[in-house]
Design goal:
alpha+beta, 19 helices
């Protein structure tokens, strides 16, 4: 069992484990990471659609690998060379490969790069190269990645520091578990050390990992003895970077490690944000990624770790840089294959008595029930046409990807069934685990089409979509035959109302029949008293993902809408929307539900605009939250976000692409940085006209389904002063 691992400079690895009264440290002497090298002939099968050449004897290297062995022998980065037989793909037999033991963890990539430079680009393929360091150790030594919590509960310590601050003089703003610990940098460092000594935490949850070097810098500057870990010092694992993923720019902060304690950086942890520490620990057990690495890992990295474990269980090595050329397709097949999921254009307007049905974990279940995996789609050994409208064959042999996802699907289904009967900490733990697994299942489909996926393949992506399209079309036909009218459908969800002048069969019975035919459960999600599908902003056509509706039987809690009204795509669901605008839209939705009166909704808007004009709105409720996509000098338009970035530079709080800037608009018509104030500045005023326009657009989303656009709203606001009683 593992709490965390330290790679020491002398070649040793220290493994920290929990004990009943603290922790224990165990040294692994002369640990040597391993990579493998094969020749290109061994990984042809499954990429070209035909069989690979027969393998040579299991103890005999090819001529190309013998030459490489002579080249590597004696190099300082190489600790040892040997021959081992392993499978290079899921579709090939084991064959002799060159095993290379690296002198250090840093030497692994050095060796791999030299191998690539030694021969022609397609001569050699390197395997097991780019594992993260803690995952590598656990895999190669068969060490469990998670801490043994049967020993005792994990202890955590939270360190929070304002994101806009930097430098040791700002340290008095740091808090430990919500409390300030000093009024000077010296006092803060001493206060953090006292908290560490008193609580002896296993996990440090920090608002930003930049706190690690900052605290050590302050300790050195003021001569304070300081150990953030359980031994002196810290290690910088990676510098900060900017990346692009699916068209979105992200920012990855620098990463640090301290001896004997795992660090979770809240600013760089998707899973901690979505599912908390319990969700992270659940994924540690499932993925084999130790907590230190899972804390900063992306969904794709966690899914890859799961795939790596399954591959190793089948004695399949992990390619360094996967290269799977797309197999030949005719133009007509390309046209059929290059499509997403099925969508039905929604009937805009308000619909009464609406029912929503969803296929449970559609894409993961398609993978599982249809045996879709990189080595099974167009396998080359089966002459069948299984994938609807594409004609791809699916191999009869069990694929590895269903084996990865099957336990996750079953686990989440079991967890969800236990949540209603659980309470307190047990309920929180189950919900965290369910949330963590959900994100893996949601992403498994898209990852098959990702060019850098270790075991991805575009034909899998296409096959999954093809099955999904067929399933939704079949469900639509069955529901319509049972007397239901489909008002909207998108990928895995479908909304129906009773068809006029038709008798309806019970939805539960129809859904059961569809589920049995599909092999995937079509769940009855919920009933709505009404659902409103919004038109596009500048068109009368229905927007696919903008709708809202009143759930049947749900009441409004005093604090807001709660679950009474389900919303998708409108302003209240957008992260950039100020809190006050979200409140205006929520109140408008409530009044719309109660009255169906555009006039009553506009009266709500008028009252809230009066508060705005009279300065009664807290400026903190007007903060706009936008993600930065470029460096400030790379923008060509002088947007409000650019103004905020310029102001951040002035305040010595510059932001990198992928980070978030938060600001209040104070004068949208001004120029430069004076248009906004940053969240942490004094917020004494705001641009009334700009926030009025934003609120009007939010209310337009509520009223557009009944034909009231911005023009009608403004005309009503300017043409009458009487407010309806319902608006209150």
């Amino acid at each position: 069992m593992t709490l965390t691992l330290d790679y020491l400079g002398d070649g040793r690895v220290a493994r920290w484990t929990l004990t009943p009264d603290g922790v224990a440290r165990e040294f692994h002497e002369e640990y040597q990471p391993t990579l493998f090298v094969g020749d290109a002939a061994g990984d042809l099968y499954g990429q070209s659609g035909g069989p690979a050449p027969s393998p040579p004897p299991r103890d005999d290297l090819s001529d190309a690998l013998r030459e490489l062995r002579s080249f590597l022998d004696g190099q300082e980065a190489v600790a040892g060379l040997d021959v081992e037989a392993h499978r290079q793909t899921f579709r090939t037999d084991a064959r002799p490969l060159l095993r290379v033991d690296a002198a250090s963890i840093e030497a692994v990539r050095t060796i791999a790069k030299r191998v690539r430079q030694f021969g022609q680009p397609d001569t050699y393929t390197c395997y097991n190269v780019d594992f993260t360091r803690q995952l590598r150790f656990c895999l190669e030594t068969d060490t469990p990645a998670g801490p043994d919590r049967s020993m005792r509960d994990l202890r955590t310590l939270h360190l929070d520091f304002p994101s806009h601050e930097s430098g040791i003089e700002s340290l008095p703003q740091l808090s430990v578990d919500g409390d300030r610990v000093g009024s000077s940098p010296r006092e803060v460092v001493a206060g953090v050390q006292a908290a560490l000594d008193d609580r002896d935490p296993d996990i440090l949850v920090v608002s930003s990992a930049d706190l690690v070097p900052l605290l050590f810098e302050a300790a050195d500057a003021y001569g304070v003895e300081f150990e953030l870990g359980r031994r002196p010092g810290y290690t910088k694992l990676a510098g900060e970077s900017t990346y692009t993923s699916y068209g979105n720019v992200g920012h990855s902060p620098a990463r640090y490690a301290v001896p004997g304690r795992a660090i979770v950086d809240e600013s760089n942890s998707f899973f901690y944000h979505e599912s908390g520490l319990e969700g992270c620990l659940d994924l540690v057990e499932r993925s084999g990624l130790p907590l230190q690495e899972l804390g900063w890992a992306s969904i794709g990295r966690v899914l890859t770790a799961m795939q790596i474990r399954e591959a190793r269980s089948r004695d399949v090595l992990v390619p360094w840089r996967a290269w799977r050329p797309e197999l030949f397709k005719s133009a007509s097949t390309l046209d059929d294959a290059d499509r997403g999921g099925t969508t039905f254009a929604p009937d805009t307007g308000v619909h009464e008595d609406v029912h929503e049905l969803d296929f449970a974990s559609l894409y993961p279940n398609i993978i599982r029930t249809r045996n879709i995996s990189p080595e099974t789609v167009r396998c080359g050994c089966c002459d069948t046409e299984d994938v609807p409208r594409l004609g791809y064959s699916i191999c009869e042999q069990d694929g590895y990807l269903p084996e990865v996802l099957g336990p996750l699907i079953d686990a989440r289904s079991d967890i969800k069934s236990r949540i209603p009967d659980a309470d307190g900490e047990e309920r929180d733990r189950l919900e965290a685990a369910s949330s963590a697994i959900k994100w893996i299942l949601v992403s498994c489909f898209g990852y098959q089409g990702f060019s850098n996926a270790k075991f991805g393949r575009i034909e899998c992506h296409e096959a999954i979509n093809a099955y999904a399209r067929e399933l939704l079309l079949d469900a639509k036909d069955a529901l319509e035959a049972a007397g239901w009218h489909v008002v909207h459908g998108i990928v895995d969800s479908i909304w129906v109302t009773p068809a006029d002048d038709r008798d309806q069969r019970p939805l539960e019975a129809v859904a059961t029949e569809i589920s049995e035919e599909a092999g995937i459960e079509l769940e009855y999600e919920c009933a709505f008293d009404w659902v409103a599908f919004c038109p596009m902003r500048n068109s009368e056509s229905g927007a696919l993902t903008r709708y809202f509706g009143k759930r049947r039987g749900e009441e409004y809690p005093e604090t807001g809408l709660g679950d009474a009204i389900k919303t998708r795509g409108i302003e209240g669901r957008q992260r950039s929307t100020p809190a006050w605008v979200e409140e205006v839209q929520s109140e408008a939705l409530r009044v719309f539900d109660e009255t169906r009166s555009p006039e009553a909704v506009c009266d709500v808007l008028r009252r809230r605009l009066r508060e705005l004009r009279e300065g009664e709105v807290d400026p903190n409720a007007l903060v706009v939250d936008n993600r930065v996509s470029k460096d400030v000098d790379d923008y060509s338009m002088e947007t409000l976000t650019v103004a905020a970035l310029k102001r951040a530079q002035i305040e010595n709080a510059g932001l990198a692409p992928g980070q978030t800037v938060r600001y209040v608009v104070v004068d949208a018509d001004a120029r430069g940085a004076s248009r906004v104030r940053l969240e942490f500045e004094g917020l004494g005023r705001y641009d009334v006209a700009w926030y009025e326009d934003t609120a009007v657009r939010a209310v337009e989303s509520v009223l557009a389904p009944v034909g009231w656009r911005e023009g009608e709203i403004r005309q009503y606001l300017s043409g009458t002063s009487d407010e309806t009683l319902a608006s209150f």
